């Protein structure tokens, strides 16, 4: 049986695994490795250290689809809506620049539930804390090296951001054509910090909005009453709040420890929301690769580095940073996998 390794348990990797299973059923053995301790990637949902508060989405917040993607990706929207993973987002998002025909969806169980849904459908063998460090061609297979060991696979799909793909050791560098290398090197990402604040059960936010885009602050660009966004504000659990920093702030503080940056963000947040109650716990995340600013140009949604054995790169570096971008990339990687396997 053909052994396929998908590196990355984010949206692109999980959907790719799910579609591959649906198309090729028992003809493939699908393995997913992720360096993190859980699935989701940049669609991560963070739990508080205790069960007194709701969880919070530290990365992607909600899904906005255009009318044309709503049509071309109809089957995915319909699947996620009927599984209860998506629900229309109809509460107030202050300052949102919305185009006619766009539709927003939120995830009652958090954004990582989208990834978990596709992973559960994939039947893939999922391994966390498997950090890939290099790829070596061994005849008709790839030896994939990770921290703590290596394994052989017949085909490999890499779904991390392009700058992380370029950090891999081994034969990848020689196999990339000059043009492919330039294309990968040209990919640029924004950087941001995200802070989640978890509150005790007696806290009720006094502001009317679910989320607010902030335009006049050098540090904070977005605040969400995360549990309210998901209609999850139920008695017994405190609300959660998420703050995203602006791109210039993220760039300026990128090389600093998140522990040193967190107090700066909280100070700005308290200026924007004076009288905000004291949270029980706080989690800060540095997104070095947040959203793609410059993707690989004129690209079908993936890059084939080598045909046999197959090595494909996919993810939002090859399209754009949102749900539909990852769906495009997963579909495009699937077409190559199907042809090759
Ligand atoms: C702050 C923020 C806000 C956003 N807001 C939205 C939004 O509101 N709506 C929206 O649709 N999108 C949003 N996005 C974009 C969206 O989250 C991404 O486009 C999408 O999640 C990318 O998915 P992916 O699977 O391509 O990559 P990722 O989610 O990055 O998945 C790649 C995975 O690879 C793993 N990995 C990396 N290197 C290695 C390695 N060497 N070995 C093993 N594993 C590795 C990572 O741990 C990760 O899990 C946001 C992103 C961020 C950061």
Automatic annotation (TrEMBL):
The keyword Hydrolase does not apply. PROSITE patterns: PROKAR_LIPOPROTEIN. Residues 94-333 form the Amine oxidase domain. GO terms for cellular component: extracellular region. Keywords: FAD, Flavoprotein, Signal. InterPro entries: Amino_oxidase, FAD/NAD-bd_sf, RNLS. Residues 1-16 form the signal peptide. One of its GO terms (molecular function) is oxidoreductase activity, acting on NAD(P)H. Pfam families: Amino_oxidase, NAD_binding_8. It comes from the Eukaryota. This is Renalase, FAD-dependent amine oxidase.
